[in-house]
Amino acid sequence: MADTAREWVLKAGEELRFEVDFRRTVSVRLRAGHAEYFGAELGPEATYEFSGENGAIFSWEGCTLAVAGECASAYVAGETPMVAYINVHMALQQQRRRQGAAPRVMVVGPADCGKTSLARLLLNYAARQGEAPLFVDLDPASASVTVPGTLSATAITKTVDIECGFMGHAASSSAGPPEAPLVWHFGHEDPAANPRLFCALVDRAAAAVDRRLAADARAGAAGIVVDTRGSSDAGRDPAVLHAIEALRINVLAVVGNERMYSALETQLAGRGIAVLRLPRSGGAVDRSPAFRQLLNAKVVRQYFYGTPRDEAASFSTVVNFDDIAVLRVGEDAVAPSSTLPLGEARRPAATTVVPVALDESLVHSILAVTDAPRPASDDDDATAAEKMAVDAPADALVGIQAIGFVSVTRVEMDRRRLIVVSPVAGRLQKHVLLHGDTKWMETA
Ligand SMILES: Nc1ncnc2c1ncn2[C@@H]1O[C@H](COP(=O)(O)OP(=O)(O)OP(=O)(O)O)[C@@H](O)[C@H]1O
């Protein structure tokens, strides 16, 4: 495509599918008619920019779009699953109007089948009708709301930002505590890396969701929409099955896999869960590991530096080794049983809290900042992390909410300090940080 704007005319029920490289930016403008991006309406005068993105602009009535910039691919598709998707939305709206039956929807299916896109569409359609559902993101591989390696719950009170997705939503709502997303640090991209910890976090998220639905009448009536990590056999996936139970799911949308649908329908029969079979969109594309890596790097960059539309300042902060405890939940590094005090059982490794050595290996790590109280100081030589790991009951740290994240840019061993990037100015006020596998290398 040439750099000058190209006009695309969509007939009713068609969508423009496009892929934009990470090194390019494409801008889209609605010239005539109505169009939407995963359920969020395009404004008539606005220009939307996309970079490193695959997506589709759909029109129920037909529209004209002007697209400027170079797409890796762009084509108009007439066959879409949108009628099936809007039928689900209408059924959910009916359920919302019946007293005491707020929908608790979970979307499952294989990788790249369009689960997040469907969740976003259902949330957007609900928001456009004045509903305020919660979006529960249980996909730590491609966290939508904050950095990868996390689970989160976000109140969707307006349609999700067309350019920045849920990240834009979280950024614009972070001013008001009731709207700020609740985030739990898992530290891995795959629930199977530590299934017990993952399930413990889902339990915490479920309890927080229940509290939120009880406290906020609008959210209580609108219910929840849960996104999950791609699973080739959700019926046997312990993370999925646990989440269905913990979040008391009553609508399960199975996208793009007949066998998975029929297995789940049989398995969940008689449990009051409506299991829906939904087609995969022909536009949902398989993303390579390299593409996902770039996508996650973009998400982390947005966390620290804001979105292109809403740039934020980030701050380089010095953190002294003696002021912090960096801990990891769930490690094999437990002492052999023979070294435990007599009569004391070994704690299961999955939720054991262990101190992390403060050394160069921390460079590029993303650390979750928590609200855990500082370990009491005494006069022995133990580091804060060691005291914390020994003193704090694991329960206090497993499932604690992340109140933010910092990225380690440098470790100065001689001066016993870390240099971190933080979206918040000033000294780090909180001192217990959680470490996981999430890394990010800042590039210019
Ligand atoms: N109709 C469509 N046209 C073009 N692109 C689409 C369409 N639907 C989804 N996509 C894109 O396809 C990719 C995969 O979709 P999505 O992220 O929704 O899948 P997913 O099942 O949630 O993936 P996973 O759980 O494996 O991360 C995304 O880049 C998304 O924007």
UniProtKB/TrEMBL annotation:
Family membership: Belongs to the Clp1 family. Clp1 subfamily.
UniProt keyword list: ATP-binding, mRNA processing, Nucleotide-binding, Nucleus, Transferase
Cellular localisation: Nucleus
Protein name: Polynucleotide 5'-hydroxyl-kinase GRC3
Protein origin, superkingdom: Eukaryota
Biological role: Required for endonucleolytic cleavage during polyadenylation-dependent pre-mRNA 3'-end formation.
Keyword Cell membrane attached: no
Residue ranges annotated for the Clp1 N-terminal domain, each copy included: 10-98
GO function term, MF aspect, one: ATP binding
